[in-house]
Amino acid sequence: MERGEARRYLWRELSPLDLQALGRAPVVDALHLAGMLRIPTKKALTDSWTAATLEYLASVLVFAREEQLTAPQTSVVFALVRELHSRATRDAAPLADVVALAKSVLAAHARRAPGLPTTPATPDAAISDDDAVDGDDASDANDGNAPAAAELFSLSEIKNIMAFLSSTLFQHYKLFQLAASTPQPQVITSEDVLVEVPARPPPLADAVLRDEFVKSQARKLEDLNTMVEAASRGQALQAQLESYLEKARPLLAALTVSHSTAQLQALLEANVAEFCALYKAGVSEAMAAREAALLAKLAELPVAAPSHRSHKSSRAMSPTPGAAAAAAAATADDAAPTKDRKSSSKRKNKSRQ
């Protein structure tokens, strides 16, 4: 392959700007690649063969990234793979012809030994002039010097590229051709994917100190334990009530058979009245016993001893029942002469007047 023909692979499919955009992306997106290749998005999404082709071309860019190929090298490899894929699927070319084309293109872009001319008979300046006349100015503008423009790959890089083509396109050549020639049914499957949404942090206005938070959690735990205990007690009472009802069912059935509804009602009222009477009697006895105990405690209270300084005042402050009666009688006796004296004095005053 002549050098001018080989240079037509450079920047043919992807421009330097496209490769820069792909290099900045964390992953190679097939839809992004479809937009660069001017493939309608709807076709890329609905046509299974177009989607498979884009995935394969995206794997070429992933290979170039892993091999750390330069932008011109990536451009040539991508254009070569797309042409090989087109000849295999659209033109149904034999495998030998496709392999020969790949070898010739890579050989035309191989690096020469230093000091040797780039072409057998054409000087470097003449090559540049021929390319400018042919209209291949884009490659001249992006590659710099025309002589080194086609010398892109070393021998080890060519071996790696051929190994990639052998393990993908060449190894499954018949499969590619059959998939492209035979219409494939469109099968769309859907699967529910669980998307974990991170919980939103609580507002800062609801923040509390650690000690308060621990106390609140302890209170909640205590309330929960109380509820559990109450529920367990309720369940025990419910079980006990059910056992009582189970024991009372035969008696109720016997009473229903042997007595009428009116008799059962009268029997129930009599039992209730008897229970109320017993309850009242028990309450009365309990109150009487409590009153007697209270009076006994009052009688057992100690009497304060009289003071030496004020005998009368201490006797007035803590009198015994007998002393209180004697004091009342003495007061009555003292009050009677006083009244007689007042009446006699009034009579004397009247007689004098």
UniProtKB/TrEMBL annotation:
Residues 344-353 have a biased composition (Basic residues). Pfam families: CLAMP. Residues 127-140 have a biased composition (Acidic residues). Coiled coil: none annotated. It comes from the Eukaryota. Residues 323-335 have a biased composition (Low complexity). Residues 113-144, 305-353 are annotated as: Disordered. This is Uncharacterized protein.
